[in-house]
Specification:
The protein is of the alpha/beta class. It folds into two domains: 239 residues, Alpha-Beta Complex (Spore Coat Polysaccharide Biosynthesis Protein SpsA, Chain A); 76 residues. Helix content is 54%, strand content 12%. It has a seven-stranded mixed β-sheet with strand order 3-2-1-4-6-5-7, with helices on both faces. Helix 7 runs parallel beside helix 10, helix 9 packs parallel to helix 10 and helix 11 runs antiparallel to helix 12. The chain is elongated. The two termini are 14 Å apart. InterPro entries: Glyco_trans_2-like, Glycosyltransferase_2, Nucleotide-diphossugar_trans. It comes from Methylopila jiangsuensis. This is Glycosyl transferase.
């Protein structure tokens, strides 16, 4: 019997074997002012995952999002700290399930893909399946599409290949992943943090193409291209410093050493010709910059050992949790 059939059973899944526990699925929908779409989103996921718990976490909406979600049959909870990252952190901490499906409440993601995403996660024993966005919704947002490609390229270079759409809000994650993920982001950079966490711990992840539609006419995007784009870049930089400190500080050290040598070459040529150092302040500056370069490299070596210890701790926490059957 397939995993999809398990998901559609009214008691959270049919037993594949007498001793096997049923599979519990939670659909998590962070929402802020999504009155126009949230009811249809809840009903869409209810139709394809009738056994799942569907949670709508309201983030200080000023419209009728909460009322519409309750009317559609969702479990409504609240997070007062503004920002998608704060909502996701709260959802993953509060909700208990074997499989977590995260999507947005704006009707852009196709609920029909949910059983297939979950089936792939369970059947292949993965920790995360990310729905890569395709279709008219992406074509209508050229600026976001270009930014997404840039962020994917940066993450690929700094942390390794693994994702082609790190900013997708539609993904399925295992309990192991959810309960061992040390979420720190406050806003839309949470998807980037999820991807980098998986790459850093070398978790089993895959992607699957999913149709991405347009928002309803009376629904407005909360994403600011430049403000949130800068925050995502800043998050990538800070995670690179924390997770790859030798690379981060080593690059700074190399840059400082290059500047020091560039300034020192004319002085060295003059010294070899005349035996004199006529620009003494420049010589002091060269020496000071080179000292900073060495200090940066030493910092990288020291902090790298700390980062490795933290990585081992996160990995052990991950291994403490039982994998979904």
């Amino acid at each position: 019997m397939s995993n999809i059939e398990r998901l559609r059973d009214t008691s959270f899944g049919v037993h594949m074997a007498p001793e096997q526990a049923p599979l519990k699925v939670a659909v998590l929908l962070p929402c802020y002012n999504e009155e126009a779409a949230i009811a249809d989103v809840v009903r869409g996921f209810r139709a394809v995952l009738p056994a799942a718990d569907i949670y709508v976490y309201d983030n200080n909406s000023r419209d009728r999002t909460v009322e519409r979600a309750r009317e559609a049959g969702a479990i409504v909870r609240h997070e007062t700290r503004q920002g998608k990252g704060n909502v996701v952190r709260r959802m993953l901490a509060d909700v208990e399930a074997d499989v977590y499906l995260m999507a947005d409440g704006d009707l852009t993601y196709d609920p029909l893909a949910a059983p297939l995403l979950i089936d792939r996660l369970v059947s292949r024993q993965l920790d995360m399946v990310v729905a890569t966005r395709e279709g008219e919704g992406m074509q209508s947002r050229r600026g976001h599409q270009a930014g997404n490609r840039m962020f994917n390229l940066v993450v690929d270079r700094l942390f390794g290949a693994g994702f082609t759409d790190i900013l997708s809000g539609y993904r399925v994650i295992s309990r192991r992943f959810a309960k061992s993920f040390p979420a720190a982001s406050g806003g839309f950079e949470i998807e980037t943090e999820l991807a980098i966490h998986a790459l850093d711990l070398r978790l089993a992840v895959e992607e699957a193409p999913v149709r991405y539609g347009r928002r309803p006419a009376d629904s407005v995007s909360k994403l600011s291209t430049f403000r949130d784009g800068f925050r995502i870049l800043w998050t990538i930089a800070m995670m690179h410093r924390a997770l790859k400190p030798f690379q981060f500080f080593g690059a700074i050290g190399l840059a400082l050493a290059a500047v020091s040598l560039w300034l020192a070459v004319p002085l060295l040529g003059t010294f070899l010709d005349t035996g004199l150092v006529p620009r003494f302040p420049t010589a002091i500056l060269c020496a000071a910059i080179m000292q900073l370069a060495v200090l940066s490299a030493v910092c990288g070596v020291i902090v790298e050992s700390v980062a490795e210890a933290r990585r081992e701790t996160k990995r052990l926490r991950y291994l403490e949790l039982k994998a979904a059957a």
